[in-house]
Amino acid sequence: MGASYPHIELSPDGVPYLSGTPIKVVEVVMDRLAYNWDADEIHRQHPSLSLGQIYSALAYYYDNKAEMDRQIGERLRREEEILSKLDTSDLRLKLKLARQAR
Question: Are residues 63 and 3 in contact, defined by beta-carbon separation less than 8 angstroms?
């Protein structure tokens, strides 16, 4: 990992998580990118996370931006693939609308 990030630990397969939580760094980053939330707003939306955890997640992202952006792109492609396989149903329409609202 190179630099040391307080509040960040890697799973055995190398996925960064917030220490002591099931929350992946990428989930905090997606809140920042999708909703343009700053650390304070992320904290308001996720009060179980400390500002220290949030800032550590964001620092990890900016220090590893190229790789994290690649992972985010992969997640979005998988999401689109799953949505494209759903039939036209109320669930699919709700998912599409929710995605467009981001």
Answer: yes
Average of per-residue pLDDT values in the chain: 89
Closest CA to 7 of 47, 50, 69: 50
Full-model pTM:
0.76
Which runs of consecutive H residues, i.e. helices, occur in the chain? Answer: 25-35, 39-45, 51-63, 65-85, 90-101
Contact by Cβ (8 Å): 23, 17 = yes
Q: How far apart are CA 102 and CA 99, in angstroms?
A: 5
Average pLDDT for 78-91: 77
Domains and CATH numbers, the chain: 8-72 (1.10.10.10)
